[in-house]
Specification:
single chain, alpha/beta, Transcription Regulator spoIIAA, Heat Shock Protein 90, 7-stranded antiparallel β-sheet, 4-stranded mixed β-sheet, 43% helix, 20% strand, globular
Amino acid sequence: MEYGSTTTWNYRGDNAFTIQLSRKMKPHNVKEFCNALSAFKRTNSDSLFLDFGEVRYAYPNGVLPIIASIEQLRQNGTRVNIRLPYHYDTRKLFHSVNWAHFLNPDKYRISEFQHDRHLVTRNFTNAIEQTNIVDDFMDVVLRSMTLPRNIISGLEWSINEIMDNVLNHSNSEIGGFVQATTFPKEKTIAFAVVDSGKGILNSLREGIPTLRTDLQAIGEAVKAGVTRNPKFGQGNGLAGSLKITTLSGGSFEIMSGTGSVLIKQQNTVRKISRPSQRYFGTLVCGEVKVNDRFSISEALDFGQGEYTPNDVIEMQYEMEDKDCLIIKMRNETTGFGTRFSGNQIRTKILNLINAEPTFPLVIDWEGVPVISSSFADELIGKLFLKLGAMTFSSRIRNTGMEQLIRSLLDKAVAQRLNNAKDTTRG
């Protein structure tokens, strides 16, 4: 057997119980970890050492369940220490996406690294934290890739509903953990939400006492209108998220207790684990494909008429009482000094004006004292070139500019015009 290809553990009685994680960390390997964790709990030891040294490939759906399990143990008094991966890039990943911090918060600080394509792992315990995380996630999405309005709405609806399930149904003492990643080249957005609560079976048994297995419970949970208690929701969160992900061409995965289900348009894979491999909590993963044919109203049609949810564009970028969009540059976190940041904000602006094709967009520069020439060219110069002079002048309005910024924006447009004329002459 290849060294590090499976999770192993050892315990000598006087030392901490040690779990050595496998080379690859995905949902299948979580079951191996849960098996080792069951052995640890039987020892009644209060000290656990997690050895990630041999880990080479790690994914959110393989790491977040371990983070949630370990945090629950820590809350119950277990001392937990870790060894990070030996491999440099993998160890760097553990730091940058906050896995190291949440696995051992006393030793590793929370990452302050600003990711351009990722929502790093975040913990949420209440509705305010949920809202802030969803807003941050949607900002990452809007800046990373151009998307149809329906995909934007579907993404926001899905991650909101799944996080809401954690707060309302899981009874998780530590709340939940969430992570999301955009893949612009593959035109894919992936997210994972996990908790260490009572699981889907124990939750749904409150409303459906005849349920016997975790796999049965997962099957019921993804049906529209199924809920443990109508007071806490309509029971459409998982059903709608399943339809959003699969109708876009993506996938939907749930792991809870001893059951796991992976659903794609073409097929569904169901698996049952041994009792010792039980995951105490729930993991929900979604993968959404950028698809121009996707319809949010079709995905959320539960027989109650057409429904299109409010989304981040309507709530944050539409001006009150005006058919107009606005983006306030002082609120942008990318900075104003590089071409890369200019590219990201240009992508967001294109998403906004594509979402509302008849609305003009105001770029409000109030509170921004200076920008670089390269930023001005990447944002305004290239936006002018892409839209064309007539569309740009009718759709884009710059306001609140310092004189220096006005000059740089004018120069960026003039240079793009001259370059276009030179190319035509040539």
